[in-house]
Amino acid sequence: MKVITRFAPSPTGYIHIGNVRSAIYPYLLARQNDGKLILRIEDTDRKRYVEGATELIEDTLNWLGLEWDEGPIVGGPNAPYFQSERKEIYHAWARKLIEAGRAYADPTPPDVIEGYREECNKKKIPFLYRNYRPENPPEWEPGIPLRFKAEPKSYEWTDEVMGKMKSGPEVLDDIILIKKDGYPTYNFAHIVDDTEMGVNYVMRGVEYLSSTPNYLALYEALGLERPHFVSLPHILAPTGNKKLGKRDGAKSVTEYRSDGVLAEAMLNYLACLGWNDGTEQEIYTKEELIKKFSLDRIQNSGARYDEVKLLWMNGQWIRKIFTEEGAEALYERTKEFWPESAANSSDDYKIKVLSIIYDRLKTLSDLRTMTNYFFEDPRVDVDAIVNNKFIKKLSESEIESLLKTSIKKLTDLENWSADSLQDALNDLLTETKKKPAELFSLIRLCVSFAPFSPALNLTLETLGKEKSLARLNAVARSI
Ligand code: GLU
User: Fold this and answer.
1) What is the reported pTM?
2) CA separation (Å) from 16 to 9, 21, 201, 249, 407?
3) Ligand 1 within 6 A of 40 CB?
């Protein structure tokens, strides 16, 4: 049996972490088994539909390297892949249910239904619509909601993640199949589509687990074989006590991307959010994930979202690309993340800057805040120097003399290489009898006015002799 999975997002504009994880696992399972991943756009809730959202989904999947085998753009034998274009298909399946006596038109107005619900609330009994079925339903035609006629019975099934499951008759109800506007509900449409498209592994958020008995009833009424069900655990807020929501500090995938989180890191982090291979390994390439992924190691409890970990992983990936693919390969990824002041600098210079700073980056956009001084002269800020926690221990004349000695030493240095700079800096330490924190902080501040920079010799080497000395002199003149 060929494994056929699908990712079935709703185009509502905002792609949160959980949405993407629901694409990663079906992708991995399909690739691992030489199967097929279908992308289906579930756009029947027209109120939530957002223009451009489908393109955003496609773009995000492409960015992450999650190619789909059937779906928008690539097409396929089961087109169309937009649910809004499949109305006739759902209506045809709905008619099968009507003919089998398992669905009925329900013109009951919403306020009357609300009345039934309130009545049950008052009596403190569960509201089940099947107890209020209209006696003489009209013929169904689009424009009237269509409901399933549930038979109260028990079900058993196996969820690949949650294990053996059981449900009683009390959870089965007359769910709506087709809405008043003629579009199907998710509950009905996904079953029709998964069947028509041959999907045999239905992987989705665990929030659909409680509705599964109603889906089982539908599969049965339609005479269909059940697919494998794979419920993916909730992603929890960092506090661990509730589902991750927009307010819990998690950005959308689009925002992380524009902050300079690498696709590899995002994929790696999300794949491991709720799955592990039982080892201590944390960094996985896509190929390794395809090889190692397994349904039985998806955890059945919620997975806590941890942005610090995501950014740590991103830092690891930045280093990995630098060391395995080289500075230029990493540089190619950084193009949009440099500060404006870098616009006129050469690629070679920026590659040099990147080569000394890459191991401090958590996101690529850190380049914007961490490298400005490589491209424009910082404003001389004497206060920042004298108030620095190491320098403040020195008297004004000590600072002046330290600057003078350093400028002299560096001016005399002929070979402006990292190694000779390191030697010169070491000599300066011996000559001045100052601590590295004092002397190096002073020089660092004069050339960068940044609290941190790469190793001082590397910073000076990259800046070049002329710029470094000009900046040191500018401070010496103002102090
Ligand atoms: N359209 C549903 C959602 O975005 C998909 C659920 C499923 O994968 O079946 O939540």
Assistant:
1) 0.93
2) 11, 9, 22, 11, 53
3) no
